[in-house]
Amino acid sequence: MKKRHILKFTALALAAGLSAGAAWAQQTTLRVFVGPNQRPDLQQKLFQEYNKANPNVKVEIETGGATSELQRQYLSTVLNAKDSAIDLFLIDIVNPAQYASKGWIEPLDKYVGGSAVLRTDYLPVYQQSNVIDGKVVAMPSQGDAMFMYYRKDLLAKYGVAEPKTWDELAAAAKKITSGEGNANLQGLSIQGAPIEGAVCTFLLPYWGQGKQFNDAGGKLTLDKAAAVKGLNAWLSMVDQGVIKKNVAEVKTPDTVNEFKAGQVVFAINWGFAYDRFKDDADSKVKGQVGVMPLPAMTGGKSATCMGGWQWAMNAYSTRKDEAGKLIKFLSSKQASAFVAKEGSILPVFQSVYGDAEVNKVVPWFKDALPVVLAAQSRPMVNDYGQVSDIIRTTTSAILARTKTPEAGVDEIAARVGRLMR
Amino acid sequence: MSMAQQHGLWSSPMLRWVAAGMVVVNGFFPAVWILFTSLKPEVELVQKPITWWPHAPTLDNYVRAFTDQPLLTYLKNSLWVATGATLLSLVVSAFAAYAIARLNLKYRQLILTCIVASSMFPLVTLLVPIFETMRALGWLNTYAALIFPYVVLNMPVCTLVLVSFFQSIPKDLENAAMIDGCTRMGALWRVVVPLSAPGVFTAGILAFVNSWDEFLLALSLNSSPAVRTLPVGIALYQGEFTFPWPIISAALIVSIVPIALLIAAFQERVVGGLTQGGLKG
Amino acid sequence: MLSKLRDPSEKTLAVMLLAPAFVLLLAIVVYPIGKLVYNSLFAIDKGGAFLGLQNYVDVWHDPLFWNATQNTLLITLITVPGALLAGLALALLANLPFKRKWPVRLSLLLPWALPLSFAGLIFAWFFHTEYGVVNDVLMRLGLQDEPTSWLLQPRWAFAAICLTIIWKTASFMALILLAGLQMIPRSLYEAAEVDGANLWQQFWQITIPMLMPSIIVALIFRTITALQTFDIPYTMTKGGPGETTETLAMLIHKYTIDYSDMSFGSTLAVFMFVISLVVTGFYLNHIGKNAT
């Protein structure tokens, strides 16, 4: 009898211990790094939803890196030290190639189903930016692109149609600014400071001529004459008074603040700006903002710069399987529609742009779709950090007129050429 | 009273006021500009011509500064870290400085050079190994992770300042104390340190301000919001595409106030105080 | 009796006093420096092969390295004496008897209280073409009709950066010099006045010599930090226009953080160390000789 008791007791204890152990062992905590401006509050809601479906997985957010720069500074230290504390990060669209080349982020093919998944309904540009050496290294989460904003009221007042080429835009801007007679009114505002956006300033008129910066293998295919022509297009607009003379000082917030204050007719900026113009308490242009695709160079086609944020997995993570499942959820259509509705964040899925519920909240996304479809990715190369630095510094110097376009383009071709072979 | 009587030039009050005026404008202007900015709404900053005093002063930015982020927590963290680092820096540097200044060390020159040389490497290149060390010690996201490196960062300045002050104190005073039965350590704390009070307070203020302002290590080692320090916190008000000067200005004012108070409290000690004409003969 | 107190325990005392400093240095600086030198000799980002001195040769041949070094040395040459003179003036002024001393002394130290990176951003704003105070004041005074783009012209940008650095660091210098001024016994001035020396002679024969140790200390650290100038040009111009205001520390930051090329970045850091050592070498000798 004693023996039976002991046996029963042991069996029960074993069973209890095993199930407790199993439950305890299954409880995973994933840590996710999100910048404070990528709506950690919305991500938090997504994580709560995920937790409901997967009760054994808890997700903690670590917020840091207010800007791409600060984020890079922090992640650079942490990843060089091969730290495993963070499992997922939300990184800028330009970073995956560089991080992958350092072995910092894990290929995601086995978690999301291979690169073929990016061809279904995702924006086409992600096949360029997220696939390195045939492997998927990041999954899209938040989309963004550079748009051309304009003052609907002013264009209507002077009977100007939406310009389709840069020449038309310059003419329209001049007509409006001379008509208004306001010395503070700028025709076109672009960013010329040596910030990441200046890479786009260089590429926009270049792409607008139908040219490519690099081939699929990452080799530089710069058409110098076209690059010079593109840069001269900006400079001639400065000379005509359409763009202000100290354009090399203009950063993204400056364009936004000046347009909001009613001092700009046309402005190139990222998608987030739309809400600022529409909703900010101190915005003087509410209800007067139009969005259109960027003009093309004469004889070329409209092109724009793709931006946005991607989910990547820490290669040193110790919880890769769970992290992989989370990434799949976060880059799903439901997640994209959710952040689109709740945060007016540009979707990464084509079909979401036309989703009825999304359009109720953000009707302008319908107009945004053609722009985003034409968006191109900046060069996805291992040394993107250096390439970006060369392009933006040189472009800014050209706009500050301390270098001629010819000399600047030669420099870019030489230095970037050495890196992108 | 000291030098003014001898400086006939400065006895002209007009010249003194002009000079004082220039110094005050020089020191206060940026701080005052930031103060004015903290009272303006952001849209006022792109007006032309620019405005100095705000059109309609508002305290909204201060409210936002405290609500957008836990500014008080950052303030507390900075105070703990800077105070801890300063006190420890002073103790460690005073010991080392005394050894260098007073003891007959064979390699005195080399030791001093080594200490100073440690500041000749840019911190950004030492970041990753320091991170690894702190991680190995389990000190990431604690005050210790910052205090100990800050002591090392402050050591060169503090040690050198203290060495030069200790050297200028005549040895006879210590010898007198030791004849009276003091140990060398006692002589250090009872004679040398009090007499070099200006130097000690100078080294202290330098260490404090350096620790208060440090950014790179604070960003990398103490990233958790609970232990974040002010410089890192203030950098977080900006966005990828926004730079809210008014809110940042409000936060900057909040971060300058403790230092200004500290300086105002201790400037007597540094400048006047204990050694006013104390060294006779 | 004195000799008994001195010899036996002196060595142990020395070890005890220096131990905390050296333990901390070893743990926090020596190991990273060792790693840094190691990094410069191996291709740690691309496989880990032994490079020998290849990185050093590459740096030597890199025109951007020479450009950055030149800019850094120029900044050092301008801002070290500049800050010394400004600091000395401020210290002497702060030492004068005013009825209320705190405004002058606070204004002396307030620049020091502003975090370095924000000082750069604030002055960049002051020098902004459209929204800057400098242009506003100059135009109100009628000294110019059109706003000047200070930061978009290499020479002016360089000058603006040096001015900001001097503004920020003069208070550091003043702090050290002020403390030194207080250690000068009043009796020396009184004796000199009795002997008929005027204030100019007093300044050169009493103040400066007595202040020399403090001046040297202030100069050493101003020089070391000048060679490592980063925050102010980084926030004001990001090295622009082009690379005309790029310093060595900015180049190192670029390679280490932006390009994630720790190997090359570490090599540049070694170069910076050598340059710092050479430049401050003779200062340090002077301090050593002064030891009693």
Structure at a glance:
With 421 residues, chain A is α/β, with parallel strands linked by helices. Chain A has 19 helices and eleven strands. In chain A, strands 1, 2, 3, 6, 7, 8, 9, 10 and 11 form a nine-stranded mixed sheet that branches. Chain A has a two-stranded antiparallel ribbon with strand order 4-5.
Distinct helical segment count of chain C: 12
Order of helices and strands of chain C: HHHHHHHHHHHH
Shape of chain C: flat
How would you classify the quaternary structure? heterotrimer
Summarize the main sheet of chain C: none
Which spans of chain C have pLDDT < 50 for at least 5 consecutive residues? 1-7
In the CATH hierarchy, what is the superfamily of the domain at 69-236 in chain B?
MetI-like
Second rung of CATH, namely the architecture of the domain at 69-236 in chain B? Orthogonal Bundle
Task: Describe this structure as you would to a colleague.
The complex is a heterotrimer of chains A (about 425), B (about 280) and C (about 290). Chain A is of the alpha/beta class. Chain A folds into two domains: about 30-145 and about 305-375, D-Maltodextrin-Binding Protein, domain 2 (3-Layer(aba) Sandwich), CATH 3.40.190; about 145-305 and about 380-420, Periplasmic binding protein-like II (D-Maltodextrin-Binding Protein, domain 2, 3-Layer(aba) Sandwich). Chain A has 19 helices and eleven strands. The longest helix of chain A has 25 residues, at about 1-25. Chain C has one domain: MetI-like fold (Orthogonal Bundle). Helices cover about 75% and strands about 0% of the residues of chain C. In chain C, about 50% of the residues are buried. The interface between B and C is large, with 118 and 105 residues.
